[in-house]
Amino acid sequence: MDDFKLVNDSLGHIAGDEMIGIIAGRLHESMRGGDTVARMGGDEFVIISSILPSAEAAVSIMSKAASRMIERVSQPLTLQGVEIRTSCSVGIALYPRDGVSSDVLLKSADSAMYHAKSQGRGTFQFFSDQLNEQSMALMSLSSDIKRGLEEDEFELHYQPKVDLKSNEIVGAEALIRWQHPERGMVSPGEFIEVAERMGLICAIGDWTLHEACRQIKAWEEAGMVPPRVSVNMSAIQIHQEDVPGKVRKLLEDYQLKSERLELEIVEGVLVEDMEATSTKLRDIRDLGVHISIDDYGTGYSSLSYMKSFPVDTLKVDRCFIIDICTDKADRAIVDSTIILAHNLNMAVISEGVEEAEQAELLRDMGCDQMQGYYFSRPLPAKDFAALYAKSQSTEIIPG
Ligand code: C2E
Ligand code: MG
Ligand code: MG
């Protein structure tokens, strides 16, 4: 704690004891179940957080935990009728990199804590400078994302999905873009993963779903009959939230037909908590909303999942398409995926189609749809609508 002595000296030991009790409770509340909170004496606490999957995950988990803890401890408290604000400084050491015995680990944490104190009150520091840098980058990107959401800096671009038989645009994938005031256009590859690690992905996912529905409605109101729009859903959001409930409410709020919407999820989603996931996907599909498996072939792609999950479309990952014209193995994989999917009543779309030869080959192989730069890059809503209108009056690709 940053200024316990002050309280002890001015309000007395009984108030000091009371304060220790309150702070202990707050620390306990700000940690996860399974963590250990202990008072080591005086105004020093030690917390053991034991289930961290990797050093990388530890940086984001502990940065979040320490910020939460500092915020919680800094809330005002009343001691003997006097309102007091206190704060704490946190030092973080990681096993095994900062010590393999409890002694050394505690020393490292202690030294990190003094480093934090020297930086001013109410901050945290890792023992390792390298982790401090990573943590600072994570914290600053995540506060930037929060700010970006508040300031409405995100937008969706739409990439056409094209039917390989009719050459018509039959869908669009909504892809998030960040119009950053200083960095310009930031692609999702630079912030989605951090948002997932820092607990911001559900906020982004909510925004994306809302924005896609708003756009579909706006297109309808402008007299367009928009194709089905797919939205990427993070595994975290599927697992943590009532996605079926959210989608139902959105369709109601925006007065949309459910056939206008599709959710893209990655294979990994299917492996975790299979029963609950299967129920959720079924509920989504019962609404009439389509589900596709994104980046198919890069994850676990077990055939048994394909059998037991309610899925409309497999999206074959771009990595199998890049060399499909020259690589026999890639061609064989895509070929058998198409046969498998069709036998299970699923459609197949290939992503990342960049060349005419790839499109030709995929058409010959019986692939249903394609998406990729060959036909069009992801476009701002206005440009997508224009392309869509044009494609409905003329055939764009020579058949
Ligand atoms: P994804 O869902 O697999 O999206 C396809 C990515 O491939 C997009 O990148 C798209 O612009 C790119 N792409 C499409 N055609 C081609 C092509 O012919 N060649 C090449 N080289 N690339 C092509 P983008 O927009 O940068 O998105 C990357 C990933 O970020 C997406 O992969 C998706 O996993 C994630 N993402 C995008 N928007 C959202 C979102 O709103 N929510 C969530 N949770 N994730 C999103
Ligand atoms: Mg996708
Ligand atoms: Mg994909």
Folded structure, characterized:
This protein is of the alpha/beta class. It has two domains: 4-127, Alpha-Beta Plaits (2-Layer Sandwich); 143-393, TIM Barrel (Alpha-Beta Barrel). 49% of the residues lie in helices and 20% in strands. It is built from 16 helices and 16 strands. The strands form four sheets. It has an eight-stranded mixed β-barrel with strand order 7-8-10-11-12-13-14-15, surrounded by five helices. The protein has a two-stranded antiparallel sheet with strand order 1-2. A hairpin with a 5-residue loop joins strand 7 (154-163) and strand 8. The mean pLDDT is 93. One magnesium ion binds at residues 294-295, 315, 351. Residues 173, 232, 264, 294 line the site of one magnesium ion (MG).
Key traits:
399 residues, alpha/beta, Alpha-Beta Plaits, TIM Barrel, 2 domains, eight-stranded mixed beta barrel, two-stranded antiparallel sheet, 16 helices, 16 strands, 49% helix, 20% strand, binds ligand C2E, binds magnesium ion
Summarize the structure.
The protein is α/β, with parallel strands linked by helices and 399 residues long. The protein is built from 16 helices and 16 strands.
Unreliable spans: none
- The averaged pLDDT comes out at 93
Alpha-carbon distance between the termini? 72 Å
> What would you call the shape?
elongated
CATH structural fold name of the largest domain:
TIM Barrel
Strand elements, count? 16
The biggest beta sheet reads: 8 strands, mixed, barrel
Helix content: 40-55%
> What is the CATH architecture term of the largest domain?
Alpha-Beta Barrel
What is the assigned CATH homologous superfamily of the largest domain? EAL domain
* Domains, number: 2
Total helical elements: 16
Molecules bound to protein: ligand C2E, magnesium ion
> What strand line-up does the widest sheet have?
7-8-10-11-12-13-14-15
Supply Rg.
Answer: 26 Å
The amount of beta strand, in percent, is 15-25%
